[in-house]
Request: fold
Amino acid sequence: MSPASFYALIGVGLFVIGFYALLVRRDDLTRILSINVMGSGVFMVLIAAADGVGATVDPVPHAMVLTGIVVAVSATAFALALSLARERAQ
Amino acid sequence: MTTPIERARHVIVVIAVLALGALLGIAIVGIPVGGQGLALIAAEALPDSGVSNPVTAVLLNFRAFDTLLEIGVLLLTLVAVWALGLRLPDAETLPASPLVNTLLRINLPLLTMIAGYLLWIGATAPGGAFQAGAVLTGVGVLMRLNGVLRLSRSVLRWMAIAGLLMFVAVALAMLAWTGGLLQYPVGSAGTWILVIETAATVSIATILTALFVGQEPGPREERP
Amino acid sequence: MTPLWSALCVVAPLLAAVTQCIKPRWGAATSIAALSLIVLGGLGLASALIESGAQTIVLSGWSPPLGIVWRIDGLTVTMILMAGIVGLPVSVYAHHYFSSSTTANRFFWPLWMLLLAALCSLFLSNDLFNWYVTLELLSLSAVALVTLAGKPAALAAAQRYLYASLLGSLCYLMGVALIYSTYGSLDMTLLRAATEPNTSVWVAIGLMMAGLLMKSAMFPLHFWLPSAHGAAPAPVSAILSALVVKGAFYILLRIWFDLVPEAPPHSVTLLLGAFGAAAILWGSLQALRATRLKMLVAYSTVAQLGYLALFFPLSATGELGQTAIGGIVYFMAAHACAKAAMFLAAGNLQRAAGHDQLSALASTAQALPLSMFAFAIAGVSIMGLPPSGGFVAKWMLLSAAIMNGAWLWVAVLILGGLLSAAYVFRVLALSFVDPGPPAEQEAPKRVARSSEWASLMLAGMALLLGLNAMPMLELMSVGLPAIRP
Reply:
């Protein structure tokens, strides 16, 4: 178990907390937030995997997280708009 | 007041979630130490990539196709939100204070310059299209919040598709030039990357601002 | 030439989408052009496959583990051709379906093209993280397409679909993160050689499979599908049932072939098979109980997807494995054609009657004989009767089960066929039932001829798949990796 695994475990913790909230809470905003928290958890695990030798850091997980963040932002934006549209439609 | 069934369900969910966490924890602990992933391989390939920032190299050269699809996701989100047809308060109804306007007059050009700097420096230091696009989105959001953002529908659409269009155009051009899909010719990779990133920055900023606005501009809105 | 054919499959829909954002009026024309190019690309890839066998295309000039690779083998080409060939009649249908509503018409085409680009990239890709991005693009566009119906029921169904989809994607991504942390690579070919059976790999694969099973609506994670497919506009339901759910399952298959380090324990495959059986039984029962035609067809999708899960217990090594995988791939293609045809026919009935309550559709059904005929032919494939693609697929699955001595799955397959016959006949009976006094029924609205022909063509394709099986099966098996002992 390397020092970076500590961060990976925190990431797992975030993932699990978000998962729990998604299953248990019924409120739209909380669900969207919990999906974001889960996403942050996964990103932490990825960043922990970027632990490199000395000064060389593995850039591929960094790029994966950047892409993941953009996808998460898009999904959140759409989820929020859908939530609003549902409210308006009732 | 929760019924016994609800409480039982709750307990089951908690146990399942904790079990998942434990499994994942065991998996993490079991990962062999000392693996460097792709750090060394990426460092070796960096000089041929056209940029010296390793993350930009991965995003726009080694795994450029991922980035292309990602810009596609952004465009898709814009179309999806517009398809919902939300009707939100018009820009004109938001209050515009002369104090804020003066502040904006100073800050917005500065922010735009910062965005341009981030775009340029992305080749050698942390930065690049997404970061510059995010700062420009800040510009757009500030303008929107103070009622000064007006873009005609057609300009908005062209700006939104610019990133994806440029990316696909470059991909096809490279297919014709070097025979490999999205494969830059040796030596001019840096230039192509900058070209793609510039178009992408414009698109990212436009799409994110338009997502913040939430509704498609009406057909008769005009440029100030 | 191969890079050109494969590039065509992805670039054509992307360019079409971009054009449609600027010029919405050209929506149908550019989409049909893009689909034709996809079919062309698929045929080009098929010929390249026959000439030189399975191949890979390196993107950006960097080979793995640093870069992304597109893999071309029989499975890829079959899926791409399926997407293109099913997409064409659906697009023609959509052109008439949406002509009345300008908002839906403007947004359907770019969303559809982006979905298609995601699907083709997914089928071509051989990289774990690339699959994540394509999955997200696919799911978001699918959810957006569901919202085009506009009604509160559709929005609620879309929201449930969105949450389920995002949850599935995140579970998948966590699995990818674990695999990368362990092996430092995202490429399936490299990982096939590298993975060993240890805890991290099993947990990662389990998580990835759970996420993908949720996205392919496998029992018991199917809860989002019936309402989403039932509430969406008819062409969207066709796209969702025929194509989108196959995307996630495709990745599942690839993971099963390449990532799983050794044959999984018997209990796991038995469990997956049990889920499949439960899907078949539960889905068929719900279809029998459904009050709305589109819900019946949606539950039929749940049942048919259960057949896909039967692949896992039947995937032994060597000859048996090849039969099972051939059956599954054929099943996916035949189901795509037949289910799309069913949804389009159902859409015609719904358009004409203004509703899709089964109890009141008799007169409409009798006014639209072409659509009912299409539904009947599609039903033949769904039931697995000869001569149809569904029959060939079921035959192969049955042979794999019998050769394996797995009589339980044989029983499940046969029972599934009987149940599907029951719910298909439930719909076909509308053509023979007395519609009741004419004063009670409203005059059915006109449905465009091409809409009826679109659904008939798709049903015909499901039939054709049954008539010409051998060359297709040979094409499908080119380059398919052997399942690990």
In short: Chain B touches chain A at residues 10, 13-14, 17-18, 20-21, 24-25, 28-29, 31, 33-34, 36-40, 42-43, 54-55, 57-59, 62-63, 66-67, 70, 73-74, 76-77, 80-81, 84-87, 130, 208, 211, 214 (CB under 8 Å). Residues 220-224 of chain B have pLDDT under 50 and may be disordered. Helices of chain B lie at 4-29, 39-45, 54-62, 64-84, 98-121, 129-145, 153-178, 189-213. The CA atoms of residues 88 and 215 of chain B lie 7 Å apart.
